[in-house]
């Protein structure tokens, strides 16, 4: 593993668009479940920051979510107001063959992703193979 300043890029406006995910990867959300949750939502609910039609609700404080198909997956904190202040994550995952054939220059770091939320240092996301 390389030495990385996770705070510098995790809070960037380009995260996670600067990272590459593929089918078969998993995200692990670690957070204080007294104050937060992780809800998978539709794109529309993601944009509106409202979990009116949740696809999945995660509340354990250590949730592992597999990326099982190519395309976008949208996650928000369902606690009132949290999504609007930035507790939301949109992931685009690709088919494995596409990623490996076109993006072979990526290093191992791009397969292990940590995200810590600025406000509470409550969320950590790992992309696990």
Task: Pick out its properties.
single chain, 129 residues, alpha+beta, Immunoglobulin-like, five-stranded mixed sheet, three-stranded antiparallel sheet, 3 helices, 29% strand, globular, disordered N terminus, disordered C terminus, glycoprotein, electron transfer activity, Phytocyanin-like, Phytocyanin_dom, Phytocyanin domain-containing protein
Q: How would you briefly describe this protein structure?
A:
The protein is α+β, with helices and mostly antiparallel strands. It has helices at residues 6-10, 43-48, 96-102, and strands spanning 21-22, 26-30, 38-41, 56-58, 62-66, 71-76, 88-94, 124-128. The chain has a single domain, classed as Cupredoxins -  blue copper proteins (Immunoglobulin-like).
Structure commentary:
The chain is an alpha+beta fold and 129 residues long. The protein has one domain: Cupredoxins -  blue copper proteins (Immunoglobulin-like, Sandwich), CATH 2.60.40. It is 14% helix and 29% strand. It has 3 helices and 8 strands. The strands form 2 sheets. The chain has a 5-stranded mixed β-sheet. Strands 5-2-8 form a 3-stranded antiparallel β-sheet, with no helix packed on it. 24% of the residues are buried. Keywords: Disulfide bond, Glycoprotein. It comes from Brassica carinata. GO terms for molecular function: electron transfer activity. This is Phytocyanin domain-containing protein.
């Amino acid at each position: 593993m390389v030495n990385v300043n996770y705070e510098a890029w995790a809070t960037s406006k380009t995260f996670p668009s600067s990272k590459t995910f593929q089918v078969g990867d998993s995200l692990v959300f670690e957070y204080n479940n007294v104050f937060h949750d992780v809800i998978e939502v539709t794109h529309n609910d993601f944009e509106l920051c409202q979990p009116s039609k949740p696809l999945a609700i995660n509340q354990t404080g250590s949730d592992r979510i597999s990326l099982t198909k190519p395309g976008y997956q949208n996650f928000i904190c369902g606690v009132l107001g949290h999504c609007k202040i930035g507790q939301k994550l949109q992931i685009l995952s690709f088919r494995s063959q596409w990623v490996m054939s076109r993006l072979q220059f990526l290093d191992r770091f791009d397969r292990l992703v940590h995200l810590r939320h600025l406000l509470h240092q409550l969320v950590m996301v790992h992309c696990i193979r």
